[in-house]
Amino acid sequence: MALIKEIRQRTGLAIGVIAGGLILFLLGGDLLSPNSSLLGNNNPVVGEIAGEDVTYQEYVDKVEEFRIAYQQRTGRAPSEVEMFSVREQAWQSMIVDKVFKEEYEKLGLTISPEELVDMVQGKNIVPELRQQLVNPQTGQFDKTQLISFLQSLETADPAQQAFWAQQEQLFADSRLRIKYDNLLGTSEYATSAEGKMEYKAANTIAETSILFVPYYAVPDSAVSVSEAEMQTYLRENKEKFQTGNTANIEYVNFSILPSAADSAEVIEEITQLTEELRNSEQDSVFVNRNSDIRPAFYTFRPGDEFPQDFTRNTDEFVEGVTYGPFVTANSTYISFKVTKKYEGTPRMRASHILFSTEGMDDVAKAGIKSQAEEVLQDLKEGGDFAAAARTYGQDGTAQQGGDLGWFAKEEFVEEFANATYARRSTGLLPNLVETEYGFHIIEVTELPQSEYTSIAVLQKELIASDATRNEAFRNADAFAAESGNRNEFSENAIDQNYRVLQANNVDAGARNLNNLQNAREIIRWAFAEASEGEVSPVFELDNAYIVASLVSKKEEGDAELVDVRDQVEGQVRNDKKAALIKEALAGKSTLEEMKAVYGDDASLNEIPDLKLSSSVIPGIGFAPKAVGAIFGLSEGQLTQPIQEDIGVLVGKLNALTPAAEIADYTAYQSQLAQSGAQRVSYQVMMALEELADVKDYRYKFF
User: Fold this and answer.
1) Which among 68, 434, 442, 564 is most buried, taking Cβ atoms within 10 Å?
2) Half-sphere exposure of residue 151, counting CA atoms within 13 Å on the CB side?
3) Measuring CA to CA, which residue among 506, 583, 572, 500 is closest to residue 535?
4) Is the peptide bond before 430 cis (omega within 30 degrees of 0)?
5) CA separation for the pair 512, 495 (Å, rounded)
6) Under a CB-based contact definition with an 8 Å cutoff, are residues 109 and 180 in contact?
7) Which family is this sequence assigned to (predicted)?
8) What per-residue confidence (pLDDT) applies to 36?
9) Which of 378-392, 539-553, 687-701 comes out lowest in average pLDDT?
10) Tens digit of each residue's pLDDT (9 = 90 or more) over 53-62
């Protein structure tokens, strides 16, 4: 079972594998790195946090911690794509360690020994352990497994004890961050005046007419943009045009797609194997031996969705019958055999609305019950159950309209299970059901079903054969060998009729190159190894060999005009067009007169219900300055022409309906505070990172 059962059952093997893997990972990764400290690099620094260097070794040690945690959690090693996420988690963890540690100390935040014990074996066991230790029969957390493991630690190998100590430290670090975030979140406060303002912004409505003149109403030929004007604009707005470490890369793609011969071979193979499956008496063994996709044998319970490739091609699920082969959406070939149908544990489906009473006394519970009964009565009179669940539900199902999905009777608390399984028709239960969690309003959506279906799945992938791959590689290798620099790269591509593709402003941390997935090695080569004009060796991706040439690269900082010319020129041109539009509209007293200046290129829009809180004008677009100006008018007045990113607008206020006064603005006050609390954790994280001046050089190594 991942984290704990695997350690308990295979202690010696697990520790040996982990230790060996750790040594190979650290030494092998460092030896193979182009920035290897073992090969003589005197500055193995992957970043800076709060003025301190983060060394390559420190970072890979942290990555290894997260890699092992991932493997223990999932029961398998992460793929290369998943390793990207693992590395990001490790990096963020190092930032948190260095940046937040000082904050914790200032505030006196700690995790006491008693609290840690409660987290790993008490009443408040951390979710990470709860997810690992699940009883396969009930699907629920099994505390006996945890106790058994903890007792075994007393006589365990020192390495195993050290590993568990490391896990406990991770739990403690996570809890400290939760405390810090909760402290900040609960300190977020909105005044009653702010609540009143929020209410008025959401409920003050203007009836308005708006003239919209888009920039294209003025032809580009009507304005000229000089080099000096663009330089001035860039200098005055440099904060808008900051650049990271980026590169411009050209490349030739030598596709590794299956040939017609490859396709014919797979079709012949799947046809033969399907016939063998039809006559097989050991279906699970056969497909697990012959299918390209694992697992290949499934049992579908009531409520489980059958494979789309199966349901799309047949309406029948007859026991003992083989269906296929079919072509899937991914251009693979697949066949199915319905091995067995049988009666199993009944499963049903229901939705509920939970009114929680945990921790309440009898008086408080009575109040909650009264509220639940009112909602139940509304539903009996035709109310929308899903809408009510989203409004009143107090558990994780609320946002799904209360849907619990399909479940077996033993998976739920006794009172709930008895009430739902006693039902003989779908629909709303007439009475509340009380459990240890509170009062439930329940709607049965599917009655119990007990038919289980086992299906063997035989799938063969259509992939390029070795012969096809070898031919593509020979072509790519010959092209790379003949191209000593970028000029030769371009000339050879033209001579040999290869298409040269461009990837501009590629970020140093990017993983994809245009539509090429998992192209990290090409990007790392461009930033860590290549000089401008250099041609790469052959890179192998999933479906292509790539030969690249580095056109240029630039460091992080203020952008040069050459890098952002199109954006700057467009902005300066729009500023000049806006000035011409304003000049043309000057002296006109009505919106109709103004529209006549630009005819069909301009539009006159009637907006009957524009809200003060809006930043978007229906039918026009994002125009916050115009919205604000309109609500500053008296009825019948016009705004001055207002320049927005989308064009020039003039608004007229026809009528204003102020928000009605209400007695209590608490709901809006709470809404503001809650919204602020949800944002504060991220905002503080970004602020502390900025103060710590985090610098990331990992793109040179990974």
Assistant:
1) 442
2) 6
3) 500
4) no
5) 28
6) yes
7) Belongs to the PpiD chaperone family.
8) 45
9) 687-701
10) 999 998 998 8
